[in-house]
Amino acid sequence: MADTPSSRFDPADAPVPQQLCDIGALTAGHPAAAGALWRLAEPGRQLDANVVRLPPGKHVDTHVEPDLDVLLVVTAGDGTLGTALGAQPLAEGSVVWLPHGSSRSITAGGDGISYLTVHRRRPGMQIQAHRTGG
Asked: Per its UniProt record, what SUPFAM superfamilies does this chain match (predicted)?
């Protein structure tokens, strides 16, 4: 088989694993913070990820993600996951699969809750020409 430019592997061009953040330090450093504290933003990625912090008693309203499965990992605190089958407790270390099409909400417990979400990257927005009748 002929060696073509597309078939040669150059280690210098290979992606390199890298540490992106320290979740413990990130959430400990912002005890009163709310919302996304960190987002995966590396170019060429196939995933999206966020570290989210909800202060005590705050919540993410009930919603449905129609297209993407989401993996949620509780990194600190506790709370409640609302589902169509009722409430499920969330504690530090909980790993939860949120299948696409499922209804869910999250309510922080007395110390608040921090969690990591990971899912397939959403496709970028497509700008299309406006069609007119005629």
From this structure: RmlC-like cupins
Q: Answer whether 0.70 is exceeded by the pTM.
A: yes
Query: Binning pLDDT at 50, 70 and 90, where does residue 126 land?
Result: very low
Residue with tokens 């061009």: 13
Contacts 24+ apart (CB under 8 A), 28-34: 28/76, 31/112, 34/58
Q: Where are the domains of the chain?
A: 21-120
CA 126 – CA 93 distance, rounded (Å): 38
Mean pLDDT of 48-77: 93
27-47: per-residue pLDDT in tens? 776 667 788 888 888 888 888
User: Looking at 22-85, which runs of residues are DSSP E strands?
Assistant: 35-39, 47-54, 59-64, 70-83
- CATH 3.40.50.720 assigned to domain 21-120? The reply is no
The rounded mean pLDDT for the chain is 85
Helix H or strand E segment including 10: none
- What's the chain's length in residues? 134
Under DSSP, the state recorded for 4 is -
